[in-house]
Design a protein that fits this description.
By secondary structure, this protein is α+β, with helices and mostly antiparallel strands. The chain has 13 helices and 22 strands.
Length: about 475
């Protein structure tokens, strides 16, 4: 049973379920449409004598197999559900008998007298008639298609079922099998497809997953298996793992560094004794962090517009040339980095300010008596005492920034030419983006690689920095 078909360039992958319940994916390159020829049904269906006929010749059980003989799309009908003026609700075909007259409420006007049926395809029996010229209220203006498929019934091994003049089934090899009648008929239901192949299909599970892991790092020849170079996370040349990792590390390092520096500066300024309007300043400075990132990112995307953006207007006012921010590699990376730095500083400011306010003033008084200047007091008093607050914040910020999806995707979508794509945006683009071709299995493997990188970093950082020392010592 074909559960899904995923197309990537000339290769079509089919998710299938075999008769014994095994599920997996198979691939042909490209698939021969003649191979998809056997049908099965999700429920019991009625078999009719001829196309358009209401004469039933039997009911097929849900596990019955059939081979498609004909599906005449030119004979398909479109049915519309309507309501008559006397309250009768039913279905009628719109081909040749109904004229559309769209007003505020869609209505139909019958050119000829028509019959209404309980279900599309004249199924379920007649529920009423419509005289010539009567106006009808349309319940659903979207025409509902009605198709019938001509099929031949098959045995469990795929052999066509034949019957003699008396209706008795003739087995293959029996006399008269070749001249016996095929047991066939017309179906209303759209059956499921069952893929049959001329060779044994390969169902991918662990091997398929391992291949996806290898594709993250290396590109191999499909026929020989020889390594041809670094794997591409996307379809572009600049989307190799080393390139993405370098961009991600540069992005994370710059953001965390400037978050810490400017966050500490603002926290020190707000922590000065006797400062007036401290609460107002703190409320204003925390706004970038409090507003949803989606709004902030889209607003800044407009400010970096090459013609109408505020940034380029200011550059012109200072006599500088405007910059094509989002269409050049280095300016685009600078733009998204600036926005994320601006967004992250308030979090550091509030957290570090809380840490500074928890340091007792006696420490600074003792240091001042010992002759320490301002820098020495900061180095030998402030930094050691604020470290239990700063280290966990740094740890969280590295993980958050490494996985920051919103700013880059909403402003640059990873472009131009993958110059602003980091690991997590490349992961999204590999699964759902324009350059990824819906590589869902590959994206799943890629996500585990990202998790492994972050887990390794967190393990080394927490152990070496003593960020959780108080937790595991207690």
């Amino acid at each position: 049973v074909v559960r899904d078909d995923t197309r990537s360039e000339a290769t079509i992958w089919y998710q299938v379920e075999t008769l014994d319940g095994t599920k997996g994916w198979l691939v042909t390159n490209p698939i021969n449409q003649a191979e998809v020829e056997v049908l099965t049904f999700g429920d019991d269906v009625v078999l009719y004598e001829d196309f358009g006929s209401a004469t039933e010749i039997g009911t097929l059980p849900a596990d019955q197999r059939a081979r498609l003989v004909e599906r005449n799309s030119s004979a398909d009908q479109h049915w519309t559900q309507i309501l008559t003026s006397d309250g009768v609700q039913g279905w009628t075909t719109t081909e040749g008998t109904i004229t559309r007259n769209f007003t505020v409420n869609p209505k139909l006007e019958a050119e000829n007298g028509v019959s209404l049926y309980a279900e599309p395809g004249a199924l379920g029996g007649e529920v009423g008639t419509v005289p010539v010229g009567q106006r009808l209220n349309v319940i659903d203006a979207t025409p509902t298609p009605f198709r019938r498929s001509h099929v031949v019934l098959l045995t469990a091994d795929g052999t066509p079922i034949r019957v003699d003049d008396t209706g008795k089934i003739v087995e293959p090899g029996d006399e008269g099998y070749a001249t016996a009648f095929l047991l066939d008929g017309w179906l209303d239901d759209e059956p499921q497809k069952v893929a049959t192949t001329e060779r044994d299909p390969v169902l991918y599970s662990l091997d398929y997953g391992w291949d996806n892991f290898k594709r993250v790092f290396v590109k191999t020849d499909a026929k020989t298996g020889d390594v041809q170079g670094w794997g591409r996370l996307l379809l572009t040349q600049n989307s190799t793992f080393p390139r993405m990792m370098r961009t991600t590390l540069a992005w994370t390092s710059l953001n965390v560094l400037f978050h810490l520096i400017f966050g500490m500066i603002l926290a020190l300024l707000l922590n000065r004794p006797g400062m007036k309007f401290r609460g107002i300043y703190r409320a204003i400075l925390i706004l970038p962090w409090a507003i949803p990132q989606t709004i902030i990112a889209l607003a800044w995307k407009g400010e970096f517009h090459s013609t109408y953006g505020f940034v380029n207007i200011m550059l012109k006012n200072f006599g500088l040339e405007p910059v094509n921010w989002l269409f050049s590699a280095t300016p685009a990376f600078a733009a998204v980095t600036f926005v994320n730095i601006w967004l992250g500083i308030p979090f550091y400011m509030v957290t570090l300010l809380g840490g500074l306010q928890s340091i007792a003033g006696e420490y600074y008084e003792a240091a001042e008596i010992d002759g320490a200047n301002g820098f020495q007091r900061f180095r030998h008093v402030t930094i050691p005492l604020i470290r239990p607050v700063a280290v966990p914040v740094l740890t969280l910020d590295v993980i958050w920034t490494f996985n920051n999806f919103n700013v880059i995707y909403l402003i640059s979508e990873g472009g131009p030419n993958e110059s602003t794509n980091i690991m997590v945006t490349a992961l999204y683009n590999a699964a759902f983006g324009r350059n990824g071709a819906f590589q869902l299995g590959f994206a799943a493997a890629f996500s585990l690689v990202i998790f492994a990188v972050l887990f390794l970093f967190a393990s080394v950082w927490v152990t070496s920095s003593g960020a959780l020392k108080g937790v595991y010592e207690s």
